[in-house]
Write a structure and sequence with these properties.
The protein is mainly α. Helix content is 64%, strand content 3%. Helix 2 runs antiparallel to helix 3 (90-109) and helix 20 (440-476) runs antiparallel to helix 25. Belongs to the peptidase M3B family.
Length: 600
């Protein structure tokens, strides 16, 4: 029996690949810019020790820093995205490593600035701010620096930390290469009896299969493969956590979580409130699990049964072109100007569409200030993949609008608000499909899919957030984490979140080993808070129309010109209260009731 294989990159049509030439037309031009940055590094020496001389010197230094930031962003993004096309390409591995090393040098070159600013008499800095019109651009950036005074070290210490930064990236880099370039899964038998290579890209597709033996085979095969290196995965993740704890202590924070949240000026109560509020709604999650078990007519519900649609008769095979069309229709409430930019992205090769050998798994949106956003996909002709397009283009349009409204200094929005635009797009497309669908079975399928978004984004990501909080606390208390300890913590959390109506297969305890976001610690909670804010925005736009849309588009155009909590509050969503999360979970509760009605 012939086995289907992943295509090589050169076998895919050029029109399905992103056009990175919009950043650098050739690798030679990349090399030239790399050399330019190396030369620019030395310019910092003329500013060091002289920031207090005059406001013009301070402005010139800031301009130099911003220029360096813009250039290294392009050099690193290009190299990394080239590598992500096929992680096996040694030249792009090398370019990415070099770009990473250069980024560390850039950090080292500018490390004197913040300590020197903080050492400057406050009256002198205020004098500069009052007399210089040009310096007004930097007012918010200066405020953000001054508020972190207790966590900024001396110039020499900052340079040392900047130099250590490359070492701190090692656990994540090792995980990425092992996970994307080296890890290979055996073939499994698909629904038609054909042997198909299991990949991270098609895993969820198999987990949604109506045939239980296919789901079980994919689940067991994936985790058996990860299990062979379980101690290696534990060592890399433990090292990553130790790195987080080291940097937090070095910067005088009480904990790694506090250090991470402070970057966005998010109070710890937001993180804790999310976990507490989700725990309040765990009975609803357990109710959904019981409904799934009943609807699938299973005497035992296993962990490999939680992705399969509850309405197995409904199949939605959606080609890439059909998916784009569905996204455009669903996002009509965002207005003609928004749709025009979205179409531009579809037409001008912002997107790398299909999976190929060696390509980085998953999906993301990235890009540069002077070019445009880019999206990496691994499209699979499924409903999930259609929503992934809506999601990632939400990120891209957020980036596009911020880049076209804000100066480079404030164009990059904080991670805390990063998931709002992407999730709102998914919510609007879903609401459109629910309104347009008349067939009861298809409607039940969509409601189930929406419930899965809540399960995957609020409940699952909050469970991840709780895992990160628990594991970091162990290291902060002087402990070390082994594969067994990681697995025990992870298994207990699954038991709490999924309840007693599911069989906790032993393999699920190892899921922590394959989650890339754990190498970007305390990120995942923002999916849950972002989802909650997005549901609030979506409901407001559909209900109020233009007034709500105007506030939302202003939010998308704000970049990091204010703190993320403030940007959301100005747009009408206050994340310092549990209300947005509670309201989102009340929608989850409503959807369970709706699905129950459709299934009876």
């Amino acid at each position: 029996m012939e086995q289907r294989r992943l295509k090589l990159r050169e076998e895919l049509p050029e029109t399905s690949k992103w056009r990175l030439e919009d950043i650098f037309k050739t690798n030679d031009l990349w090399e030239q810019e790399y050399a330019n940055i190396e030369r620019l590094l030395d310019e910092g020496k003329k500013f060091e020790g002289h920031l207090g001389d005059s406001s013009s010197v301070l402005v010139s230094c800031f301009d130099w820093m911003d220029d360096l930031s813009l250039r290294i962003e392009e050099v690193y993004s290009y190299a990394r995205m080239r590598r992500d096309e096929d992680n096996r390409q040694a030249n792009y591995q090398a370019m990415t490593d070099r770009a990473g090393s250069l980024a560390v040098k850039v950090s080292g070159a500018v490390a004197f600035v913040v300590p020197e600013l903080l050492a400057m008499p406050e009256g002198r800095l205020n004098e500069f701010r009052a007399e210089s019109e040009t310096l007004k651009l930097y007012h918010h950036a200066l405020e953000d620096i001054l508020r972190k005074k207790d966590h900024i070290l001396s110039s020499s210490e900052e340079k040392l930390l900047a130099g250590v930064g490359e070492l701190a990236e090692a656990p994540g880099a090792i995980f990425t290469m092992a996970n994307n370039a080296d890890l290979k899964f055996p073939a499994i038998e698909d629904e038609t009896g054909q042997m198909v290579e299991l990949t991270k890209g098609n895993f969820i597709h198999f987990m949604e299969s109506s045939k239980r033996n296919v789901r079980k085979a994919a689940f067991e095969t994936l985790y058996k493969t990860y299990g062979k290196q379980r101690n290696t995965w534990a060592a890399t993740l433990n090292s990553n956590i130790k790195s987080d704890v080291f940097f937090a202590k070095a910067r005088n924070y009480h904990s790694a979580i506090e250090a991470s949240l402070d970057d966005d000026r998010v109070p710890l109560k937001v993180y804790d409130s999310l976990i507490d509020t989700v725990h309040d709604f765990l009975p609803q999650m357990h109710k959904y699990i019981r409904l799934r078990k009943k609807a699938l007519n299973l005497t035992e519900l296993h962990m490999y049964d939680i992705y399969v649609p509850i309405v197995p008769e409904t199949t939605m095979k959606i080609s890439y072109d059909e998916a784009k069309s569905m996204v455009l229709k669903g996002l009509k409430p965002l207005g003609a100007d928004y749709l025009k930019v979205l179409q531009e992205g579809f037409d001008n090769r912002w997107i790398d569409v299909y999976e190929n050998e060696g390509k980085t798994s998953g999906a993301y949106s990235w890009g540069t200030y002077r070019a445009h956003p880019y999206v990496l996909l691994n499209h699979q002709d499924t409903l999930d993949s259609m929503f992934t397009i809506a999601h990632e283009m939400g990120h891209s349009l957020h980036t596009y609008l911020s880049n076209h409204t804000q100066p480079h200094l404030y164009a990059g929005y904080k991670i805390f608000v990063a998931e709002v635009a992407s999730t709102l797009n998914e919510a609007l497309v879903m609401e459109h499909l629910l309104d347009e669908t008349k067939d009861t079975k298809t409607l039940a399928y969509l409601v189930n899919h929406y419930l899965e978004q809540f399960r995957g984004t609020i409940f699952r990501q909050t469970m991840f957030a709780e895992f990160e909080k628990k594991t970091h606390a162990i290291v902060e208390e002087g402990g070390a984490l082994t594969a067994d300890q990681f697995s025990e913590i992870y298994r207990d959390l699954n038991a709490a979140y999924y309840g007693e109506d599911i069989i906790l297969d032993e393999e699920i305890a190892l899921e922590w080993a394959r989650i890339p976001h754990f190498y970007n610690s305390f990120y995942v909670y923002k999916y849950a808070t972002g989802f909650s804010a997005a549901i609030a925005f979506a409901r407001a736009i559909l209900k109020e129309g233009e007034p709500a849309l105007a506030k939302y588009l202003k939010f998308l155009s704000s970049g990091s010109s204010d703190y993320p909590i403030e940007l959301l509050r100005k747009a009408g969503v206050d994340m310092e209260t549990p209300q947005p999360v509670r309201e989102a979970l009340l929608v989850f509760e409503e959807l369970i009731g709706r699905l129950e009605g459709l299934l009876t």
